[in-house]
Every structure is written in structure tokens, then in C-alpha cells.
Amino acid sequence: MEEKYHTIATLHELLHYEASKFTASEIQLKHSLGEWINQAGSLQLKTVLQKYLGFVQQHVQKLESFLEEEKISSLSISDRVMKAFVEEADQKMKYCADNEVKDACLLACIQAINHFKISEYGTAAAFAKELNMEKSATVFHEMEINEKHIDDRLSQLAEYEINRKARAPIVIAG
Known about the structure:
By secondary structure, this protein is mainly alpha-helical. It has helices at about 10-40, 45-70, 80-95, 100-130, 135-165. It has one domain (about 10-165): Ferritin, core subunit, four-helix bundle (Ferritin, Up-down Bundle). It is built from 5 helices and no strands. Helix 1 runs antiparallel to helix 2 (about 45-70). It is elongated and about 60 Å long. It starts with 10 loop residues before the first helix and ends in a 7-residue tail after the last helix.
């Protein structure tokens, strides 16, 4: 349920609004990642997703600290974009008849989420820097770097394992 947010009149208020959305988004992703790790067939994919889950948990803690430091009350803001990404991933994976193809699908969906988050955290870092909030700019930049690190790892995994295995899956007719 989306709480009505007061008018956003300053860059600082926009950053507050976005940070509230990020928090809800990361919490939603944290729950989905747990399920997706269990669905992954590749041990290496599971390992990368477990590392990503650790980053997501760190992001939630850092965002909650930011909201507390900024004296932002917990807002019931949801991120419709993240919700759409998660729903799309769940739906696509239901259609995958082969474990290797499912892994490729899951990896691609996680990378789409990851690219979205790189953009969001980069923008938040730029806003915080513009507002002379150096500590917050550094935190948002670190979260952006975490996302880029996972993106690089997922790209390598896709290129050297997951996509190769999915290229010619063994489909057993039922």
C-alpha cells in the first residue's frame, strides 16, 4: 500500500523519497533472492546469488541507517519497478522446462534488476554529492560498486558456464 508522500520540492526531499523506495525494494529483493537461490541448479550461480544476498542485506542496513540519520520516518513506499522485475522473473522461470535454461533465465532477470539498481544508486550518490552529503554519497557509491561487482561476476558466469549449458539443453519429453 502506497502512502501519500508530501510534495517533493527539493533535491534533498527527492533523495529521501528515493532512499525510502530503495529500502522497500531491497527488502523485496532479499525475500525473492532466497527463493531464487533454491531454484538455481548451478552451484556457481547459487554461490554468486548467495554473495549478492549478502550485499542486499548490507544495503538494507545502510539504507535504514541513512533513513534514521536523516530522521525520515518509515514510509510505506513500494517500488513498482522492482515489483515488476520480481514478478517478471517468477513468471518467466515457471515457463522454463529445463534446469540449464532456467538458470540462464534467472541470471538474465537478476542482471536486469542489477542494472536498474546500478542506475538508481549512481543517481542517489550524485544527488548526495550535490547536496554536500559526502558520507551518504560514499555509501550510495559503495552500493553502486557492489552492484557492478555482482554484474561483472554474473556476466562471466553467463559467458563461460550458464549460457553455454543452456544453448543445447537435454529436454525429456513427458
